[in-house]
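tool_call: predict_structure(chain=1)
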Amino acid sequence: MTRVFIARDAAALALGADAVAAALAPHATVVRTGSRGMHWLEPLVEVETPAGRIAYGPVDVADVPGLLAAGMLTGGAHALCLGVTEAIPFLARQTRLTFARCGVVDPLSLDDYRAHGGFIGLQKAIEAGAAATIDTVLKSGLRGRGGAGFPTGIKWKTTADAEGDRKYIVCNADEGDSGTFADRMLMEGDPFSLIEGMAIAGLSTGATKGYVYTRSEYPHAIATFDAALAVARAAGMLGPDVFGSGQTFDIEQRVGAGAYVCGEETALLESLEGKRGQVRAKPPLPAHKGLFGCPTVVNNVITLATVPCILRDGPEAYQAIGMGRSRGTMPIQLAGNVRFGGLFEAGFGVSLGDLVNDIGGGTLSGRPVRAVQVGGPLGAYFPPFLFDTPFDYEAFAARDGLIGHGGIVVFDDTVDLAKQARFAMEFCAAESCGKCTPCRIGSTRGMETMDKITAGTAVAANTALLRDLCHTMKFGSLCALGGFIPYPVLSALDHFPEDFRP
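tool_result:
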C-alpha cells in the first residue's frame, strides 16, 4: 500500500490529525511522524511517490473522500495540493540541521533514525575519544540554545576537568517561554537525536547518568521520549555498554511541576534533588558543583540535539554557517499574530524584518505589525524601525534585547504596550522563587508604579522611579527572571511612550 505521513505532533493533534489519519488508514499505510513545523498547514498529509513526497494541507477529515477521489495516493492534483514538500517556500528557505529529521522519520524507529544519519556522531565520538570530542564541540562554536548563549565546549571541558566521583548530564526541557515550542517538537519528532547528544556529552565528560527535566504541560513529548528511551536501551544505545564502547551512560526523564523559574539551571537542579525550585547563588557553578553536589553539565534540548550533526559532519561545516560569534543554525519559532506560524531553522544573521514580514507573512489579522517580542516574557519589544537587526546574540544585546530560546511573538497595531509591560512585572511576581529581594519585591512595586503612571499620577517622578527599579532588578537579582524583566518594561517605555500616557 502507498505510504502517507501525518504528524502526531501536539500542534497537529490539536487540529485534528488523528481523525485524518484514521480516515486514511483503510486506504494507505499511515506513518505518524513529527511536524515539519508549518503549523498553518496542519494537519499536513504527505504521500510517498516516485517524485518524492507530495504534500496536501491543511486537510480536514471531511476533505479525505474528495482527496482520494482526486488521486491523492498517486500525487493527484487537488486544491489542497502543495507539491513536493521540500519545495514549499517556507521549508526550501531553511537550513535544517537540528531539525533535519523532524516530520520525515517515525520518531520511534531506530531504522529510520539510522537511515537519516543517526548515531554516526556517537560512533565518531567513541572512536575519537573524550578530549577530541570536546575539542570538536569547541571548534564548532556551538553556544547554548536555551538563551544564555554560553559556549557549549567550554562548559563540557570544565565538567570533564572537574574532580568528582560522579558526574551528570542534565537536559533542560522545561521550555516555558511564550512563543516557543522547539524543544517539544524535537522530543516528539526526533527523540533519538537528544538521546545521542546526551550520550556523546556523557562519554566525553565522564558522566554516567543523564536526566531530562521536562515541563509537565508536554504530555505527548513525555510519552514519546520515555518510549524512545526504552527502545534505545533495548538496542544497547544506553546502559552499561553504550554502542559497544565499554562505557556506561543512562538517561532518566523527570517531569517538572510547572514552575517557570525551574527553567533556570540551578533552580532546576534543586527541583531534581526533590527540593523547592529556588535559585542557587553562583559560584559554585554547576560544572563544578551541580546535581547532588557533583560536576554537572546543564544544556538545553536543542544544544544537545545539535551535537550529533557536528560530530557527523565536522566542526568546520557547522562553523561555516552563521555570523560573528553566533555560529550554526537557530530554530526560530514564529508565533502570536502571524500569518505563517511555525518553526524556521536558519543560520544566524537573517534579519528580524525578514523573519516577521517575509517568512512569517506579517500579521494574521492583516493589520500593520506594531511590535514583536523576542526571547519570551523576559524579551524586549522591538518596533518596526529595529527590524534590520540581524538574528544574532551580540546584535540583539547591542540594542538592549535578547534572542533567548528563539521565540518571536508578533503583535499588530491594536496592542497596548503599557499593559504588556505591566504583565512582565505581574508574571515575575507570580513566578519568582522569592529568594532575592529585587525580584520578589521589585516586581510587585513595579506593577504599582506602572499603575500610577498610566493613571496620570506624578508621571515624570514615577517613570524615573520605574527606571531606577529596573536598574536595581537587572543588576541585583540572583538570576535572569528578575534580571531580565527590565528588558520588556524599558523597551516598552522607550519605544512606545504614548501607551503610558493617561
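agent: The longest strand covers residues 329-336. Proceeding to next step.
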